[in-house]
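Hello support,

Our group uses your service weekly, and this is the first time we've seen a run hang past the timeout. The protein is Transcriptional regulator, LacI family. I'm not sure whether the cause is the sequence or the server load. Input pasted verbatim:
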Amino acid sequence: MSCLFTEYLLNRYGFRMGRPIRTRRQATLASLAAELGVSRTTVSNAYNRPDQLSPELRRRVLETARRLGYPGPDPVARSLRTRKAGAVGLLLTENLSYAFRDPAAVGVLEGLALACEDAGVGLHLVPASPGHEDVAAVHRAGVDGFVVYSVPDDDPHLAAVLQRPVPTVIIDQPRIDGVDRVGPDDAAAVANIANHLVELGHRQIGVLCMRLARERNDGFVTLERQSNAHFHVQRLRLEALAAAFSLAGVDWANVPVVERFDHTVDEGASAARQLLDANPQVTALICTSDILALGALAEAERRGLHVPGDLTVTGFDGIAEAERIGLTTVHQPVLEKGKAAGKLLLGASERVTPKIITLPTELRVGRTSGPPRTAEERWFGP
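Update from on-call engineer: The timeout came from a worker crash unrelated to the input. Re-ran successfully.
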């Protein structure tokens, strides 16, 4: 090889054939400590426990680390050493976009994120799309505990979470003995809606509910499906409605209940259309969520029905849009729900017995509920 060609290789690629140029080794925690003349614990504290160092010493450690190219402690090695991942897992059996689209879910997610921020830990979303049986995402999740958000009692992802040797907190559902849970008193909250409608004089009612099981059903619901619902919240709300209206002389077996698998305004509208087409005598639609109620209001407008003159509509959740339009609904503190679940999970190591946190709800009577029209008013009214 000619000297000119060798010189070209050296200048072009930075090495001499057969004799690579030595490159600087990446700094390590030990070499950084030696450079500073401090212990490795001191360097580690500059990153992981800054309160243990004076501001001046921490600044000197970080500046020297930047100068030497030290990237900081290896988080994987740290998790192996401390057996802590530094993150909370949120399991929701919905598509990932649901957590950022559904108003109630957004509030819960924000509250949980705030609790994680306060504790200095991360948040790892573990979405499990409906119908998917693969629980590998649960097994792979590097988290110190799980918050399970509103899943059916027979969901395989829930079973996988409970098999992990980490603490678990459930938001809303299911109710499992021995497991921490945060949520409202659904039965009492829905009873308040029922009593409000009974006092107004409604007896011809219909119900729009969210999904009752993992198997899709977009239609009328039998009594058997209601009583065997795997989504405990929906089951409790239907049972509370049945009890309250039975006391008012309404035979629950004759009350039409329509279920929707997907939770969207459009599905609420189609559910209302299906129920009212088959039961035009209904004077009040009770929806187990505000999203379904917004759809029901859209369908009422499409049909030319006056709300509440021709049709009363109620919801549940108290989302911002529902409050803006004056929907009669039950308000629940969704942000506080997420925050309480996070705090409960992060403090689980300090307790030996499970804890149940019941959040307050409030019936907010708006512009969408009123007394039913009489037969004469329906015939001669505007």
